[in-house]
Amino acid sequence: MDTAQPASSQSLRMPVYWAAAGLVLVLWVLAMLRLDWWGMFAETWPLTLTMVFGSFIAGATAEGGGAVAFPVFTKAFGVAPHDAKVFAFMIQSFGMTMAGLVIYLRKIPVLWHVIGFGLAGGVFGLIVGDTFLALPNPYPKLFFSLVAGVFGFFLIYNRWIVNNAPSEHIRLRRSVQLTLFTLTGFLGGMISSVIGVGIDMMTFILLTLLFGVNEKISTPTTVVMMGLLSVFGFLWFGAVKSEINPVVWQYWMSCVPVVIFGAPFGAWVCSKIKRDHLIWLLLLLIGVDLGSTLWVVPMTPERIQFLLVSTLIASSLFALLLWLRRFVTDEA
């Protein structure tokens, strides 16, 4: 696995990012001039402001920008869930891939083999989920927020009660390990097909609880993976299915200049802060996400039952992952 490089070596690579960001900005300005969409900011500025925060979160944590965009867009701004999901893929394909470029250029440690197997499962899961998964709203968002909330408690237990030394790498030598990451990617891809995020958090959970990977390594790993899956999602809904609402293009154009800087900045911050600070940031975001979801989604007996069953299943699965960790070693 790559190790951190001297600051002077890193600074020599950063012009590549600035050149890429400059190219995106030039193309964006040309497109805005051609379409004459400048007046859209009178209506879309709240979405742009939302993605200032959302893009930072996308680059700095395993939550993903869509975890901010999907609930805010659907509940606060009345955007249709399908449009919010497609927007998440569109905007993450620029913001999180630019964050991934910074991660690569600065040689921030990531698990590239995990990305490869997880992404393979994620692409297939996105296609299958979009084709066959018919889970009505708001159950997908309820499920994601609840799973993340339950994981938050296990993250606290893992860091401050179990308190094992975190692993810095994984050697995937067994077919069962490869299958685990592929299946996790598949599940994350299915969730992403509904709400625009998911593969990042699902992979982060597996890396943290089963393999005990340092959160400062698993976070950029999931950022790169979600960014690459978002590129595929953008192509899937845009080129293959042609399901992008014309107004979503305006939402996207109003946020592109923000996310190409916000997500890379988040990735840089993630690489600089201490492990515990990163964990606290993630816990804060998980708490805000879960609290806001439970606040804006009306509770019915059926939804309460769904939450209880999901809590039981997630807790049992996470406890099993922690128990199985004792049988997982770097040499396995």
Automatic annotation (TrEMBL):
Keywords: Cell membrane, Membrane, Transmembrane, Transmembrane helix. InterPro entries: TM_pro_TauE-like (IPR002781). The keyword Membrane applies. Pfam families: TauE. It comes from the Bacteria. GO terms for cellular component: plasma membrane. It is a multi-pass membrane protein. It is found in: Cell membrane; Membrane. The keyword Transmembrane helix applies. Its main location: membrane. The chain crosses the membrane at residues 16-35, 47-74, 86-105, 111-135, 142-160, 180-211, 223-239, 251-271, 278-298, 304-324. Belongs to the 4-toluene sulfonate uptake permease (TSUP) (TC 2.A.102) family. This is Probable membrane transporter protein. It comes from Cyclonatronum proteinivorum.
